[in-house]
């Protein structure tokens, strides 16, 4: 699979150098690390930081900026950063009011981030966290919910960081983050699998005419394959699966995120967004906030995920709408 | 080729409905037309408008906003809008100070836009235009320059609209636009051809291991195919070809645009950007402004284009840097 890259071993460091150059007004790379740090430091405010493996661009560096993240920690492709780098990021980001970690629910991510949190606390930092588990797909083998952390994570970033920018403390942010996560669901579908740099092998097999429901953001296959009939049918399936996670009624208020998985053009995302709009309008569900674009990708996977956040508090909407210079928003 | 869409005949109207919904705070669709109009009208200021076929998303609607376009006119896929729709957009956008048209250099685009300009002038509007011809690739058959209007067009939008927002009149904008265009060059390369909605046919043939230099933004093949060796080699070829259009030296100042053609992930664009940075640094050429992302796509074509604008006037940089709420910037 052709990719615009050099040696496989250099992909992550060259990616980070490219991001640091392209957005040098906003962020800087801590030399020889996977840490990207916001240039403008704000004191007397909790620093919200996030991270994980690379391969999800513009996540997570695209959310560094005003009213948003103070830093991102970027590991190898689809592999979380080390305890040491997370700890270093906490120490660099802490401006005296503590650090809040947004962690995606994958075993290795949770383990590294929580170990770094413990180390930082032992060193005298105030640190709290939330574990985002918005994926409501099921496992093919046992039909259990997967509840991984996927694209909805960017809504958590924005809301929690917005509250931090408005002066809320760590304990309040932790409660807010839990409330948001419990109201957040995402479901993704692949039209084509991704390929890792340096390989020709697709991350899973998918017939030319089929799509895979319930995929992950590390190239994981979904729970069911079936033909792609139309954007409308796809929107119908995702909207219904997401709705089943709530007790929505006419007048319920949502924020929605239509997320491209890496190689799906904006045209298709916009057509899909239009179909989601029509379905929700039919039911009288109000979309108070929406984003359409590439927010949390999976290398060059083709496809889309849909996120619902039920807006249970008007403040969440205010935080989502705060202006930012973050390049991924 | 699987695409997230419904019936082929509905692609454009559903795309425009999706865009109008996703960005309803910024723009609105004029019902039953391909016109997207900025909600906020600014009087005593020239309205800068642009357009062309669809299939280039986020162009051109992604450039509607503060300090940017007042409207975009969107035709069928890769087909310019009609004289009538362009004329209607001019009439709707004119707030009394006239309208400036940014036209990409394709025969049908130029013919429709100039006919609409003539009609609008006959109706009493003040209208001027620029024809953008930044493509510096060559035709395979006769080695003539193609000089189509491609991704660099978004720099023309931003600079001319910035000057309009600062109160410059039509005649000044026309001169400014000519100066910018004469300093603007773009070259694109495809890793994989695009496919039109409703067909399985690639727009041109390309061996699995090869890339095509000098492609257009309507799926046109380039002037030469060769294997993709590395991002570095690709950057080297594009930088050298672009440099040959100028007499750059150490201290020369550029704005650069690294543009994804539709299905190329941000990771690859960032790695390529990093290679361009290294090459320009070696020569002491200063990059004063840069953008990396999908700005002027060609459906689901994979690949990248590189644009150089030699900054001959400090004001151009100021206009590029003016803040905007346009969703494609």
UniProtKB/TrEMBL annotation, chains A, B:
GO cellular component: cytosol
InterPro entries to which the protein is assigned, alphabetical: DhaK_dom (IPR004006), Dihydroxyacetone_Kinase (IPR050861)
Domain DhaK residue range list: 7-329
Lineage: superkingdom: Bacteria
GO molecular function, one term: glycerone kinase activity
A Pfam family of this chain: Dak1
GO biological process: glycerol catabolic process
Record-given protein name: DhaKLM operon coactivator DhaQ
Organism whose genome encodes this protein: Vagococcus allomyrinae
Origin organism lineage: Bacteria, Bacillati, Bacillota, Bacilli, Lactobacillales
Gene: dhaQ
């Amino acid at each position: 699979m052709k990719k615009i890259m050099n040696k496989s071993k250099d992909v992550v460091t060259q990616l980070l150098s490219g991001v640091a150059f392209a957005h040098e007004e906003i962020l800087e790379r801590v030399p020889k690390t996977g840490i990207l740090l916001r240039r403008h430091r704000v004191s007397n405010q909790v620093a919200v930081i996030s991270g994980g493996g690379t391969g999800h661009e513009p996540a997570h560096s695209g959310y560094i900026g005003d009213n948003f993240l103070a830093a991102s920690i970027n590991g190898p492709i689809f592999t979380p950063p080390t305890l040491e780098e997370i700890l270093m990021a906490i120490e660099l980001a802490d401006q005296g009011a503590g650090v809040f970690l947004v962690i995606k629910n994958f075993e290795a991510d949770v383990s590294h981030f929580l170990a770094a949190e413990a180390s930082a606390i032992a060193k005298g930092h105030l640190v709290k966290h939330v574990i985002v588990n918005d994926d409501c797909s099921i496992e093919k083998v046992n039909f259990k919910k997967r509840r991984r952390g996927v694209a909805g994570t960017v809504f958590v970033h924005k809301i929690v960081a917005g509250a931090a920018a408005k002066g809320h403390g760590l304990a309040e942010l932790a409660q807010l983050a839990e409330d948001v996560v419990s109201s957040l669901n995402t479901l993704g579908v692949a039209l084509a699998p991704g390929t890792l740099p340096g390989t020709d092998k697709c991350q899973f097999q998918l017939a030319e005419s089929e799509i895979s429901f319930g995929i992950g953001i590390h190239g994981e296959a979904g729970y069911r394959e079936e033909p792609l009939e139309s954007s409308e049918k796809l929107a119908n399936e995702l909207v219904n699966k997401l709705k089943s996670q709530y007790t929505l009624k006419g007048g319920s208020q949502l924020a929605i995120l239509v997320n491209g998985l890496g190689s799906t053009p904006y045209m298709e995302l916009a057509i899909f967004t239009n179909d989601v709009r029509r379905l929700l309008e039919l039911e009288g569900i109000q979309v108070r906030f929406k984003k359409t674009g590439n927010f949390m990708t999976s290398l060059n996977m083709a496809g889309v995920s849909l996120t619902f956040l039920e807006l249970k508090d008007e403040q969440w909407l205010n935080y989502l709408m705060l202006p930012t210079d973050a390049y991924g928003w």
